[in-house]
Write a structure and sequence with these properties.
- With about 100 residues, the chain is mainly alpha-helical.
- The chain has two domains: about 1-45, no CATH class; about 50-98.
- About 70% of the residues lie in helices and about 0% in strands.
- The protein is built from three helices and no strands.
- It has helices at about 10-15, 15-30, 50-95.
- Its main location: mitochondrion.
Amino acid sequence: KAVVAQFNASQLITQREHVSRLVRENLTIRAKRFNLLLDDVSITHMTFSPEFTHAVEAKQIAQQTALRAAFLVDQAIQEKQSIIVRAQGEARSAEVST
């Protein structure tokens, strides 16, 4: 409980492996006090309302869309710079040949 309480519901969904590792580490330490050897820990079932799950998924999609948009802007800037450099080169070439 102590480990899971450190995370909000969104983090429990998106960082499941990290949470599972922390739970395993915590339980392993506690089990040693009772001479128990913990073999494995799995977080197998977390349930949230459909609305919350949908909201988390929508947020992730929005973040991916924003990253894609930023990539497209960067790509357009690079293409613009390439066109400018090419045009400058052609202009210099035209000046030299005249």
